[in-house]
Amino acid sequence: MDPLQTGIRLPLNCTYFLKHLSFERCSQEESIAWHIRLLITTSYGECAFDPDFGCEIWEHEFEHAQVSRIWVDKMAMQMQTVLEKYEKRLLKTTVKATVGEEEMRNEVNGNDLVRLQKSLHINVKGFIAATNEPFYFNDKIYLSPFATE
Questions:
Q1: Number of Cβ atoms within 10 Å of the Cβ of 13
Q2: Pick from 33, 7, 28: which is nearest to 133 by CA?
Q3: Which ranges of the chain have pLDDT less than 50?
Q4: Which of 135, 40, 132 is nearest to 78 (CA)?
Q5: DSSP three-state, residue 32
Q6: Correct CATH for 3-148 of 3.10.450.40, 3.10.20.340, 3.30.450.40, 3.30.428.10
Q7: Of all helices (H) and strands (E), which one includes residue 37?
């Protein structure tokens, strides 16, 4: 793999590092996807090196009962702004977000519990700056309580 076209594979594999004295590599597409996920799942102020690193969604996490098209569009625009600032390997990005509800099943003390949970679907399209190839990213996060698939 060309080092300029790769990234470090997440999660970090310390056993691999101790054996090879370098971290495992991944494709540039995978590296960008992991970075986008990190941006989405980080709240403002969580990273000491840059208090602006992260996503505004966690400032509004518990407002999901009032989810509206305006809220979803605002989150998509904010994610687009964050990507333009922190993910320079992508060009011409567009972000779309939609909200859905999914049945979540858990077994507690032998009882099957079912509840509905709101989910935010995030779709990112753009072009990789180094190669001008199309890039697609899709993710889903569950709102209050926060969870990922």
A1: 14
A2: 28
A3: 1, 3, 64
A4: 40
A5: helix
A6: 3.10.450.40
A7: helix 28-41
SS3 50: coil
DSSP, residue by residue, 68-112? -HHHHHHHHHHHHHHHHHH-TTEEEEEEEEEEEEEEEEEEETTEE
5 near 17, Cβ under 8 Å? no
In one letter, which amino acid is 77?
A: M
Polymer length of the chain:
149
pLDDT in tens, 116-149: 778 889 999 999 998 999 999 999 888 765 555 5
**Listed residue (118, 116, 115, 120) closest to 140, CA to CA:** 120
Taking the C-alpha atoms of residue 75 and residue 83, their distance in angstroms, rounded to an integer, is: 12
Residues 6+ apart with CB under 8 A from 88: 129
Give the model's pLDDT for residue 4. 53
